Amino acid sequence: MKDFKDKTVVITGGATGIGFAIAKAFGADGARVVLAEPRLNRLEQSVAALLESGVSASYYQCDVADPQSVRALADYAWKENGQVDVLINNAGIKVPNHPVTDLPLEELHKIFSVNFFGQWHGASIFGKRMIEQGTPASIYNVGSELSFFSSVPNATAYMATKHAVLGLTEGLREELPEFIDVGLIVPGFVGTEMHTAEAAALGMDADHFAALVMPQIRAGERFVVSHAYNIEHINARFEAISNAYSNYAPRYDGDDAYDVKTLITRRGS
Questions:
Q1: Is the pTM of this model over 0.70?
Q2: Residue 172: which of 214, 140, 220 has the closest Cα?
Q3: Are 37 and 13 contained in the same domain?
Q4: Does the pLDDT value for residue 155 go beyond 70?
């Protein structure tokens, strides 16, 4: 979807950080922006700022961990705008960084309820309505560099949610019709309120991040990337996987006999 003028864009977690930076970028393209998150005061502040800058913006208070709340968000967005063209599944939280052996189980459930199930609810509820709508649309889930590699000590819970979001996105991409673009936004270290002020000062500026990702969203890219050095860590992981296969499961003639995709294709033909 190359042109977002007069299109409706719903952004969860859109009042601050990456979500708000992306909201400003969509607004600059002429989109109608709907921000959603639980904190009413932040929603009011951010929508006021967007309106002051000439962006068509509104908000809906929403807890993405609650599917009923996400359905109500969808109801609002379609009722107010007639259709929804883009969903940015951005809402996310952190929990204290502890090793797997020490993290309280309730903290793991808490972070999955927002970072994974919140995105699942958005993809499911908005995806179904986009199919029924039948017009070109986009769903972009916000993952992380931690969707691909470990970059923060003892952040395994957060990393597990972002690996799960990668799986959700890849599966959703195959399930939805071709007129709906599906992709994963892959932030590296961006300076937002998710971090302490001291740490945030070291990260990429959120507006700069948004400027990098917007052309990729317009192009319908599968992976929307930013931090260039991350490819070094991704390649290191790929090399380890490749070496494991080369050493213990090397290719041979007829090795597709147990390949699930090949078997499904043969059975369906």
A1: yes
A2: 140
A3: yes
A4: yes
